[in-house]
Write a structure and sequence with these properties.
Blueprint: H1 3-15, H2 33-45, H3 49-94, H4 99-106, H5 110-125
Length: 126
């Protein structure tokens, strides 16, 4: 029995009341989220054990990949915020604000502002 027939058999109790002919085309109604989910469930139900294990491993790999991308995106945002704070601190230091005030307003630690101050003074003195 082909894959479509197995899916139809699994979905038949859901589709019978709607009286749909799914063998020729996917009706517009089936494009809706609920029916897409039903088709995914039926596809999984129609798989043999080997295919299910392979599918689950692929799904895990995909989710791990997405999580890695999300984490990298967050780290990139944090790094960008830090770089912006450092640039702001440099401007504040060049305008003569104290290290303590720069730390207070920039969110950087006093040590980070001192390092920024040293770097700024070296560039100005070059």
């Amino acid at each position: 029995m082909g894959g479509l027939h197995r899916k139809c058999r699994v979905l038949n109790p859901f589709l019978r009341p709607i009286n749909l002919d799914i063998q020729h085309e996917t009706p517009t109604l089936l494009q809706e989220r609920t029916f897409k989910k039903l088709f995914k469930i039926s596809e999984y139900s129609a798989m043999n054990e080997t295919d299910k294990v392979s599918y689950e491993e692929s799904l895990k790999t995909f989710r791990d990949y997405v999580n890695t991308l999300d984490q990298a995106k967050e780290e990139g945002k944090e790094e960008g915020k830090k770089e912006q704070a450092i640039e702001t601190a440099k401007s504040m230091l060049l305008d003569g604000l104290s290290i303590e005030k720069v730390a207070q307003y920039s969110g950087l630690s006093i040590e980070e502002v001192q390092n920024t101050s040293l770097a700024t003074n070296q560039k100005v003195g070059d």
